[in-house]
Amino acid sequence: MRPGPSQDEVRRQNLGALLRHVHVHGATTRAELTTTLGLNRSTIGALTADLSAVGLVSEGAPKETGRAGRPSLVVRPESARVYAYAYSVEVDRLRAARIGLGGAVLDRRDLDRPRGLLAAEAAPLLAGAVKEMQQVVPTDAICVGAGVAVCGMVRRDDGLVRLGPTTGWVDEPIGAALGAELGIDVPVTVGNVADVAAFAEHTRGVAAGCDNVLYLYGDVGVGAGIIAGGRRLTGHGGYGGEVGHMKVVLDGKPCECGSRGCWETEIGEHGLLRAAGRSGARGRDALLAVFDAADRGDARAQAAVRQAGDWLGFGVANLVNVFNPEMVIFGGTMRDLYLAAAAQIRSRLNSNALGACLEHVRLRTPKLGEDAPLIGAAELAFERLLADPLDVG
């Protein structure tokens, strides 16, 4: 028989549970923590004292409640003092942010990214943005880690980007390159952009409280973050969610992955612009121009949007049949397409998805908007702290 957890292990687990609750839900009274965590008042008091001692939370009186009696102290995350760096490597831009415990975006920088820029070239640009932000960081602040969201297939074990067809990356060590440039003694965790965006929306966004979620993210290509049974579903090596490379047309249009007829050739940037007669254009602004033209009555733009919406609904119906989600979230350029062709998407979904799987599906756009990948990348960085709060540097 295996021995049960030691008192120290139980204490660390309870500290992690309390800090995680405050990190996700924000300021919480001791009374609420007692009820939510199922611990007695003296234990909650001891745990909050431990977390306060290392500067992770603070306690104070609540605002006027209007109730008689002594009010319960409120526990708050030390968002300004405890933070992680978050980065998003997208097709046309690089983004960096400093995100505090509790999910607050404290500072941010956006940079243009020339297409074809490799990890060794992107890392110094991101590091430069961080050095700018570090100039206003309080002297007693603690950086607990860094997280990177990347458009591509990320190997879970070491964060190597095995393949990023839309970014032109093959076996690019962005985590190692960025860590070397930053020169800070914290781990750099790398994840797929759709996966970490799904993580963020499930943790503190529109999908909070949903255990089965599909997050579709579009840039040039299309990927998915999948939450199944409340857990991220990333596959054996971390490469799950590459739904943009589902084959939908036998011997169809060539895809940047090297195959043909992939779903993203119909709903991604290139497919939609080609259908609208704008093959020479590229980027999100070009896509938005198509949606605007369609809205103003341009017949070719309208046909392109209808066609892309039809294909989007077709693919979502298949994914709904496979994963039976409670919610489908459309992020990145998929949000723009969804808003432009919602009726077409819903019509195709209703005609193609199984009724039982369709009964409870809600279609949504991200509550966190374009910040979802950054906040998700920060959540990756915070995981180590939340697992063992007393290990904070």
CATH names the topology of the largest domain as: Nucleotidyltransferase, domain 5
Order of helices and strands: HEHHEEEEEHEEEEHEHEEEHHHHEHHHEH
Strand order across the biggest sheet? 6-5-4-7-11
Q: How widely separated are the two ends?
A: 36 Å
Label the overall shape.
globular
Provide the β-strand percentage band: 15-25%
- At the fourth level of CATH, the homologous superfamily of the largest domain is ATPase, nucleotide binding domain
Can you tell me the CATH class of the largest domain?
Alpha Beta
Number of helices: 14
CATH architectural designation of the largest domain = 2-Layer Sandwich
* Major pleated sheet: 5 strands, mixed
Radius of gyration equals 23 Å
Provide mean pLDDT, rounded: 91
- Enumerate the spans where pLDDT stays under 50 for 5 or more consecutive residues: none
* Count of discrete domains: 3
Share of helical residues: 40-55%
Structural class: alpha/beta
Please tally the β strands and state the result. 16
What features would you describe in this structure?
- The chain is α/β, with parallel strands linked by helices and 393 residues long.
- The chain has three domains: 7-77, Orthogonal Bundle (Arc Repressor Mutant, subunit A), CATH 1.10.10; 82-197 and 372-387, Nucleotidyltransferase, domain 5; 208-366, ATPase, nucleotide binding domain (Nucleotidyltransferase, domain 5, 2-Layer Sandwich), CATH 3.30.420.
- Helices cover 42% and strands 21% of the residues.
- The protein contains 14 helices and 16 strands.
- It has a five-stranded mixed β-sheet with strand order 6-5-4-7-11, sandwiched between helices.
- β9 (161-164) and β10 (169-172) form a beta hairpin.
- α4 packs parallel to α5 (174-182), α6 packs across α14 (372-387) and α10 (299-323) packs parallel to α12 (342-352).
- It is globular and about 65 Å long.
- The model has no long low-confidence stretch (mean pLDDT 91).
